[in-house]
Amino acid sequence: MSRGRLAVLVMAAAATACAPAPRREAVPAAAPPAWQVRARGGQVAIETGTRDLALNDAAACRGCHVGIADEWQHSRHGLAWTNGIFQREYGPAPKPWCVNCHAPTTAQQEGLAIGDDRLAAQGVACATCHVRGGRLVAKARAAGSPHDTVVDASFGSPAFCADCHDFTFPVLDGAGRAVAMTDHPMQSTVTSFNAGPYAREPAGCLTCHGSRHDHAFPGGHAPDMLAGAFVVSWCRRAAALEVELTNAAAGHRIPTGDIHRHLLLRVWRSSAPAGVWEAFFGRRFEEAEGGGKRTVWDSGLDPGASRRFPVDLAALADGDPEADPAEPLNLELTYVYIADEFPRRDRIPSEPGTASVVRWREPLAAIPPCAPASR
Ligand code: HEC
Ligand code: HEC
Ligand code: HEC
Ligand code: HEC
Ligand code: HEC
Questions:
Q1: CATH code of domain 223-366
Q2: Ligand 2: which residue has its CA nearest to atom 14?
Q3: Cis peptide before 255 (omega within 30 of 0)
Q4: Mutate to test the pocket of ligand 5, among 98, 99, 190, 256 (most ligand atoms within 8 A of CB)
Q5: How far apart are CA 351 and CA 205, in angstroms?
Q6: Is residue 277 a contact partner of residue 241, using CB atoms and an 8 Å limit?
Q7: Lowest-confidence range among 69-73, 181-185, 268-272, 292-296?
Q8: DSSP 362
Q9: Domain ranges of the chain
Q10: Local confidence band at 338 (pLDDT 50, 70, 90 cut-offs)
Q11: What is the separation, in whole angstroms, between the first and last Cα of the chain?
């Protein structure tokens, strides 16, 4: 390399060195939203910043907000601690980590510690979402409000819901406390929503899950939500049926949420129930090194997605399926909330562990032929 060339390089380097240094003043970090008092995943309780029962107890809010309180009380949020599906899983192996989302506030947990579950029984309650630093937090303050309300535009946004609805597997210590979070997704409802066609909806999750006045937050336990979300169709093609499931109305993958959620689509002949055909929609996991579980298989459906299956009629029965064309075929789509579809004797559920979403029974001749255009 010539000296001249080297000099140019040195000068270039020097010029770089002399270029105005990147601004070092700390860009003021955006203040966290008023509702945000912990990282996702429920490693710690939610601190409402007050022990005043007028703010921590839903019964105190009910006095003036009867309609909202009634809706909330029957919602899964209101039932988050007491419902049989949760208690069945939590009861035999109680872990403090679980409490951080199912009875999340410090006031609720202080009660539990002295054997008083009155506040904990309120589950995800008014204060869980609305009280921080001893004040109310909301998206807007009404003119006639008696509250010293902190207004936060991101209240109720998908990021707000993500506090409990989007998190990775924890690493638990011997006492069941989350000492760290892994990178392995456990619930990813918000991530799935953000990647899908509804991400730009200004009302976010509330587009489908309630509104300002609606605190029912219907979901997987609401028959009409399920009926709209899953569209099933079947048709006849030669010696096979074609069965299709579509995620028609959910703003995220189906199933979503809890790791045990899954769907079973089944077709069988009344005369040969043992020949049942079945498709499983859900996730499978394996233990991951360093803690938590890795998703090794996920057959859920993204928003708008469909999956179509051929079902061999001959396989449904030993004999000739056409022998009695009047014999009904059965189709059922079952939504399963828990790990074991069928209740075990030692774990009697206080509410159903499954919901039947679609149930058809038709003679083969009554099932429409498939459109020639489809594959
Ligand atoms: C003494 C009656 C009263 C009690 C008790 C009460 N509220 Fe309110 N609250 C109101 C009124 C009036 C408004 C104005 C808007 C409306 O009518 O809903 C309001 C508004 C709100 C708002 C909207 C934000 C605002 O400031 O306008 C939230 C959120 C709220 N209340 C939550 C609660 C919670 C949570 C509790 C219990 C910790 C509670 N309220 C207890 C009367 C009450
Ligand atoms: C899971 C979180 C959550 C829980 C639990 C909850 N809220 Fe809300 N609340 C919201 C959201 C989200 C909104 C709507 C924000 C917006 O305007 O987009 C809201 C809005 C409100 C409003 C304002 C309604 C209006 O007309 O503007 C009141 C009042 C209120 N909540 C009271 C309560 C009371 C009382 C309880 C307990 C009985 C309660 N909330 C429980 C999340 C929650
Ligand atoms: C503090 C934690 C927390 C926050 C914040 C929260 N949720 Fe929940 N949510 C829960 C828990 C826990 C359950 C499940 C309760 C149960 O069934 O045991 C639940 C249940 C639900 C369900 C019903 C699921 C079903 O199986 O039927 C819907 C829908 C829902 N949440 C939507 C929302 C939306 C939308 C937001 C944001 C506006 C939100 N949640 C904020 C904790 C939270
Ligand atoms: C376009 C409508 C739509 C949007 C937007 C939407 N959801 Fe849903 N969601 C549904 C429907 C329909 C179901 C019922 C089907 C099911 O349970 O899988 C559902 C079910 C759920 C469930 C219950 C899952 C279960 O295990 O039973 C939760 C929790 C939930 N949604 C949370 C959210 C959150 C959080 C957001 C925002 C990030 C959101 N949803 C956005 C339509 C929507
Ligand atoms: C970071 C928050 C969080 C933690 C921690 C958490 N959960 Fe949940 N759990 C949720 C949310 C959100 C839902 C609702 C999702 C859905 O509907 O599928 C839920 C739903 C459930 C359900 C289904 C309830 C129903 O109504 O069908 C069971 C069972 C459950 N959780 C058990 C547990 C147990 C046991 C632990 C502790 C090992 C735990 N959860 C810890 C957030 C949490």
A1: 2.60.40
A2: 212
A3: yes
A4: 98
A5: 26
A6: no
A7: 268-272
A8: E
A9: 53-207, 223-366
A10: confident
A11: 66
